[in-house]
Automatic annotation (TrEMBL):
Protein name: Pyrroloquinoline-quinone synthase
Keyword Isomerase: no
Function: Ring cyclization and eight-electron oxidation of 3a-(2-amino-2-carboxyethyl)-4,5-dioxo-4,5,6,7,8,9-hexahydroquinoline-7,9-dicarboxylic-acid to PQQ.
GO molecular function annotations of the record: pyrroloquinoline-quinone synthase activity
Keyword entries, A-Z: Oxidoreductase, PQQ biosynthesis
Reactions accelerated catalytically: 6-(2-amino-2-carboxyethyl)-7,8-dioxo-1,2,3,4,7,8-hexahydroquinoline-2,4-dicarboxylate + 3 O2 = pyrroloquinoline quinone + 2 H2O2 + 2 H2O + H(+)
Metabolic or biological pathway: Cofactor biosynthesis; pyrroloquinoline quinone biosynthesis
Homology family: Belongs to the PqqC family.
EC number: 1.3.3.11
Signal peptide: none
Species, as recorded: Gemmobacter denitrificans
Gene: pqqC
Gene3D superfamilies the UniProt entry points to: Heme oxygenase-like
């Protein structure tokens, strides 16, 4: 290095392409598509008890997403940002009478033999699931906007797992049909739309190295939230260590 050249500052912002690559690498290393429960589910190895437990516990996550997004919007002073984010709530809640990911998830619940009212009540959700999901909602409510937005970027990695899930469920389980897998089909178009906006916003507005590292940490945190839910599910219903207060096989069956 010549005398007139100075080394780059340690805290210099990453170039945009390198920042994006760091974000995407989190999915390669940590996204929950690599959890053994998903291999078990998609290959037809899950018992109906395990499938029902997954549907019940994943409901707490699904039903909390629009609450998370509403909490985020309550902090946004930019009306353009609010307008862009509002579609996420519409995607999950749907209209007054029909549509929405929440209703589609309850169709899946009905398809696997559960009472949708029981599932929607949240009864039987494992403590670890509730703890992880509620921590995510609090994170989005309380952390700086860049971190809060970056935490949603697990959607970058979701279409591949949804495609495998649709194929695996239809191949291996009698409950699977176009209606019961419709939640996942809709996410194939909804998630990429959300990613395009959110990724560009984060890459554009994280202008300091500290902002970039906060975004990277936030996305890492979100992968931990997803992974923890599956660890709890595996421990409870594959290994047979169901925690107190959690759903017991045979409860909440469709009437």
């Amino acid at each position: 290095m010549t005398a007139f050249m100075t080394p780059p500052a340690i805290d210099a912002p990453l170039p945009r392409a390198e920042f994006e690559a760091r974000l995407r690498a989190i999915g390669d290393a940590r996204y929950h598509d690599k959890h053994p429960f998903h291999d078990r589910l998609h290959s037809g190895q899950c018992s109906m008890t395990e499938v029902q437990a997954w549907v019940i516990n994943r409901w707490h996550y699904q039903s909390s997403i629009p609450m998370k997004d509403a909490a985020f919007m309550s902090r946004c002073r930019d009306p353009d940002l609010r307008r862009a984010w509002r579609s996420r709530i519409d995607d999950h809640d749907g209209g007054p009478e029909s549509g929405g990911g929440i209703r589609r998830w309850l169709k899946l619940a009905e398809g696997v033999g559960l009472d949708p009212e029981y599932v929607a009540s949240g009864a039987g959700v494992m403590p670890a699931t509730r703890f992880a999901v509620d921590a995510y909602v609090r994170f989005v409510r309380d952390e700086p906007l860049i971190a809060a937005m970056a935490s949603s970027l697990t959607e970058m990695f979701a279409p591949a797992i949804h495609t495998r899930r649709i194929d695996g469920l239809l191949e291996h389980y009698s409950f699977a049909n176009p209606e019961t897998v419709s939640y996942f089909r809709h996410r194939l178009t909804e998630a990429p739309k959300d990613v395009r906006f959110t990724l560009d916003w984060v890459l554009t507005h994280a202008v300091t190295r500290a902002d970039q590292e906060a975004a990277i940490a936030a996305l890492t945190f979100k992968t931990d939230v997803l992974w923890a839910q599956l660890d709890a599910l595996w421990n409870g219903y594959v290994e047979g260590r169901i925690p107190p207060g959690a759903w017991q096989p045979g409860e909440g069956q469709a009437r």
